[in-house]
Write a structure and sequence with these properties.
Number of strands: 9
CATH class of the largest domain: Mainly Alpha
CATH topology of the largest domain: Dehydroquinate synthase-like, alpha domain
Strand content: 5-15%
Shape: globular
Strand order of the largest sheet: 1-9-6-4-2-3
Number of helices: 14
Structural class: alpha/beta
CATH architecture of the largest domain: Up-down Bundle
Oligomer: single chain
Helix content: 40-55%
CATH superfamily of the largest domain: Dehydroquinate synthase-like - alpha domain
Order of helices and strands: EHEHHEHEHEEEEEHHHHHHHHH
Length: 390
């Protein structure tokens, strides 16, 4: 067996309705600290979804600064402006409460506040030089797994996405409360759920750092997610499905935090960065074409995944791989989300630029089980532009 190194968040709390006890939990975790920053987005703040958590924080004597300026695919200036506000409030603890973007910004605040290192010097792998503030993550969607990863994504230069990857970004505590995801619209449930499934698939087939623990987590994640995603999409109040999705997303996050993702994410980034398509949908749009492209190098592993995601699949590894790609094509159709690049505003003339931009994602492409050239990327985008109806 190959040697491996596995890291994750040291403490996870999973309980339906636990947001109502958040102040007490954090008081126990940090008994001597008082000034806390909640990083979220304006919709969540104004919707009242966070009211019970904020009330319990006040009850347990937390002095709370809410920063609700986070937007999807947060640009660097949003991060820097949030950091400035947090410095002015002399924050001692950072809490990310929301989707992946809110949690990603929270991670960066936690490392920016105690030091002098510029954000742009942190881009890449292992570039964060200093310590961080205490950090807690609480997701409201079942998708990114950001609550248990050491990755934060920032939009730079208007459209490009850069990653900060460093062990300092692992939180002290991840708190899972599926009640916060009750009522999430079907489309958002589909985007985020497919995002989590992509994390698990790419972790299981990663060319680098794949290991027995990440494999175990990826397979369990895919079992939970594939059995519950349609139920969660069709009935936003299905508690059992919501709890399974949130746990599956976390397992997928723990998996890809240690066995990193590849070409699906690399090709999704230009879609999100240029056309402002939600990240999970961007992944979904290129998933089946990438599975088909990778098949010559990864069909044995894809076949093992197919046995979990499409139970009863028989035949050769290649046949099982085709069944796996077909499952995702049908899932997209069943959930009613966009199935082609054309539907999200991409024009045929955009594909070449997107392929060029995707090749800049060397941090991700190096993990793909099959080498991707720019011509390959263009062919994958062409396949995703107007795919056949399943």
């Amino acid at each position: 067996m190959n040697s491996f190194h596995f890291q994750t968040v040291p403490t996870v709390i999973s309980e339906f309705g636990v947001a109502r006890q958040l102040g007490a939990i954090l008081r126990k975790q940090y008994p001597s600290l008082v000034r806390l920053c909640v990083v979220t987005d304006r919709f969540l703040h104004e919707s009242g979804l966070l009211a019970s958590a904020l009330a319990d924080l006040a009850k347990h004597h937390w002095q709370v600064t809410v920063i609700d300026d986070v937007i999807a695919d947060p640009p660097a200036h949003i991060v820097l402006e949030a950091a400035e506000r947090a410095r002015e409030a002399d924050i001692q603890v950072v809490l990310g409460l929301g989707g992946g973007s809110s949690m990603d910004v929270a991670k960066l605040l936690a490392v920016l506040l105690p030091g002098q290192q510029p954000l742009e010097d942190m881009y890449g792998v292992g570039k964060v030089a200093g310590p961080r503030l205490p950090l807690v993550q609480m997701p409201t969607t079942a998708g990114t797994g950001s609550e248990v990863t050491a990755v934060s994504i920032v939009t730079t230069g208007g459209t490009a996405k850069m990653g900060v990857v460093a062990p300092q970004l692992y939180a002290d505590l991840a708190v899972l409360d599926a009640e916060l995801s009750i009522g999430l619209p079907g489309a958002a449930t589909a985007y985020t759920g497919i995002d989590a499934m992509v994390h698990a698939i790419e972790a299981y087939t990663s060319a680098r750092l794949k290991n027995p623990v990440s494999d175990m987590l990826a397979i369990k994640a895919l079992e939970l997610l594939s059995r519950n995603i349609l139920s969660a999409c069709r009935d936003g109040k299905n508690r059992e499905a919501r709890e399974a999705m949130l746990l599956g997303a976390m397992f997928a996050g723990q998996s890809f935090a240690n066995s990193p993702v590849g070409a699906v994410h690399a090709l999704a980034y230009p879609i999100g960065g240029i056309f402002h398509v939600p990240h999970g949908l961007s992944n979904s749009l290129v998933l089946a074409p990438v599975l088909k492209f990778n098949a010559p190098a990864a069909s044995k592993l894809y076949a093992q995944i197919a046995e979990v995601v499409v139970p009863g699949t028989t035949g050769s590894d290649e046949a099982k791989t085709a069944a796996l790609a077909g499952y995702f094509e049908r899932l997209v159709a069943d959930t009613g989300i966009p199935r082609s690049l054309r539907e999200v505003g991409v024009q045929q003339d955009d594909l070449a630029r997107m392929a060029s931009d995707a090749m800049l994602q060397t941090r991700l492409l190096m993990n793909n089980p099959r080498e991707v050239t720019q011509a390959d990327a263009l062919a994958i985008y062409a396949a995703a532009f107007d795919p056949p109806i399943p």
